[in-house]
């Protein structure tokens, strides 16, 4: 710890004191408490806690003492449960304040929290309310706070579409560019699009001087220029550059932008050399990667954000679902191949000549798609097919409950976050 004196520190939470050594704070399971280890000044300390007593080396937190006692039980024993006779949402607010999430709760309490949040449509966010300065009340801003406030406003303008009027205008323009680029991409695959010049698909994929001057090439270049400028500005105003590069939506932006420049460079270097016509396939693949621009809409629509956040939080359930399907595929494909083709019963179904071929029939049967391109013809095979369909319905339905509750929770979180910025936008109109 870089601030304070003495071998130990005292945390005063709502009147209840806890004493810890300095080394314990460094890797403390609660993020807010562990932040004290890196504080360099009293001002840094006051950003983490509510008050500080220099003489006693005591840090005061104006929070619920009984709730913190239950949180300390989790730190010591690894089990986190709700405080009896305390509102679940209030306790969840305390968890968020100290740096815990709903996933840290025991399973029974997680279900109680999900049910309560589904009823009230409320989410307590971990971030500070928009518009509140990070350095404390007005008049206590550190040097350079004005520049930091300007960067924060720019960051919110590009990251939060509902944070201000400028952010809404920027989001609307970005959506229009995405829609236009998708329309051009879809139209470029129509036969009528290249019929007047009788150009092949390979020729369409090459960026020549003539193609760039065409309307479709001009529109594509303008869209790419907008997306590139937007990505560069968002990178410049971001707080953590490494974290910016690791975010999924930013990775998608790079995947959508870089193929255009790679295609242009490949065309410039290969020219019209007939020996490098194989590059046409690569260019078509790169151009088709522009379909990732559709995912850029996730920045502006809560539905797509909810889907991505749910998949992120339910990766264990998704893996469990894939394991169920793989185990069932291994069993039913082997049995179906044996009953339809492996036994010498005078009737052999060529569609089931191998177990990998039978896996296709198993997957379309378990998901109740049933294309009809292959089906069992023997009585034992049909009985097995019925069992396969029923088993697929049961196995696919088992993890759905967990995924549904996570989806509801993620939707409420994002709705509450959007509502916070909408209130900030209303305040901006009033001012």
Describe the protein in words.
The longest helix has 31 residues, at 400-430. The protein has 3 domains: 8-127, Potassium Channel Kv1.1, Chain A; 164-300, Voltage-gated potassium channels. Chain C (Four Helix Bundle (Hemerythrin (Met), subunit A), Up-down Bundle), CATH 1.20.120; 305-423, Orthogonal Bundle (Helix Hairpins), CATH 1.10.287.70. It is mainly alpha-helical and 431 residues long. The chain is built from 20 helices and 4 strands. Residues 122-141 have low confidence and may be disordered. The protein is flat. A 4-stranded mixed β-sheet has the order 2-1-4-3.
Task: Compose a concise summary of this entry.
Heterotetramer with KCNB1. Does not form homomultimers. With 431 residues, the chain is mainly alpha-helical.
List the defining traits of the structure above:
431 residues; mainly alpha; Potassium Channel Kv1.1, Chain A; Four Helix Bundle (Hemerythrin (Met), subunit A); Helix Hairpins; 3 domains; four-stranded mixed sheet; 20 helices; 4 strands; flat
Residue windows where pLDDT falls under 50 for at least 5 positions: 122-141
Radius of gyration: 29 Å
CATH homologous superfamily of the largest domain?
A: Voltage-gated potassium channels. Chain C
Question: In one word, what is the shape?
Answer: flat
């Amino acid at each position: 710890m870089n601030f304070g004196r003495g071998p130990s520190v005292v945390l005063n939470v709502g009147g209840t004191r806890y004493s810890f050594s300095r080394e314990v704070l460094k890797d403390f399971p609660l993020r807010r408490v562990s932040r004290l280890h890196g504080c360099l000044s009293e001002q840094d300390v006051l950003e983490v806690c509510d008050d500080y007593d220099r003489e006693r080396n005591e840090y005061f937190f104006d929070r619920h003492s009984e709730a913190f006692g239950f949180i300390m039980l989790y730190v010591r024993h690894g089990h986190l449960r709700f405080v009896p006779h305390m509102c679940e949402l209030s306790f969840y607010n305390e968890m968020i304040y100290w740096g815990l999430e709903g996933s840290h709760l025991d399973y029974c309490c997680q279900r109680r929290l999900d049910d309560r949040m589904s009823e009230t449509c409320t989410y307590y966010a971990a971030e500070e309310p928009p518009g509140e300065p990070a350095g404390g009340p007005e008049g206590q801003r550190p040097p350079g706070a004005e520049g930091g406030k300007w960067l924060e406003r720019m960051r919110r303008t590009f990251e939060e579409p509902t944070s201000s009027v400028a952010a809404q205008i920027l989001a609307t323009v970005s959506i229009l560019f995405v829609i236009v680029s998708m329309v051009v991409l879809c139209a470029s695959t129509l036969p009528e699009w290249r019929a007047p010049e009788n150009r092949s698909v390979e020729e369409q994929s090459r960026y020549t001087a003539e193609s760039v001057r065409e309307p479709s090439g001009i529109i594509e270049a303008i869209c790419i220029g907008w997306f590139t400028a937007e990505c560069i500005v968002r990178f410049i105003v971001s707080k953590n550059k490494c974290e910016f590069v690791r975010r999924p939506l930013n990775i998608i932006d790079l995947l959508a932008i870089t193929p255009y420049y790679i295609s242009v460079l490949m065309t410039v270097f290969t020219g019209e050399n007939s020996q490098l016509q194989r590059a046409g396939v690569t260019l078509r693949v790169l151009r088709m990667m522009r379909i990732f621009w559709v995912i850029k809409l996730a920045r502006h629509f809560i539905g797509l954000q909810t889907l991505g956040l749910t998949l992120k939080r339910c990766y264990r359930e998704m893996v469990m679902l894939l394991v169920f399907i793989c185990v069932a595929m291994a069993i039913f494909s082997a049995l179906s191949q044996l009953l339809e083709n492996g036994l010498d019963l005078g009737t052999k179904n060529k569609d089931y000549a191998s177990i990998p071929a039978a896996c296709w029939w198993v997957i379309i049967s378990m998901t109740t798609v049933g294309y009809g391109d292959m089906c069992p013809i023997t009585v034992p095979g049909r009985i097995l097919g019925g069992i396969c369909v029923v088993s697929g319905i049961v196995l696919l339905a088992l993890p759905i409950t967990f995924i549904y509750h996570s989806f509801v929770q993620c939707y409420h979180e994002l709705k509450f976050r959007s509502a916070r910025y909408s209130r900030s936008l209303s305040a901006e109109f009033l001012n």
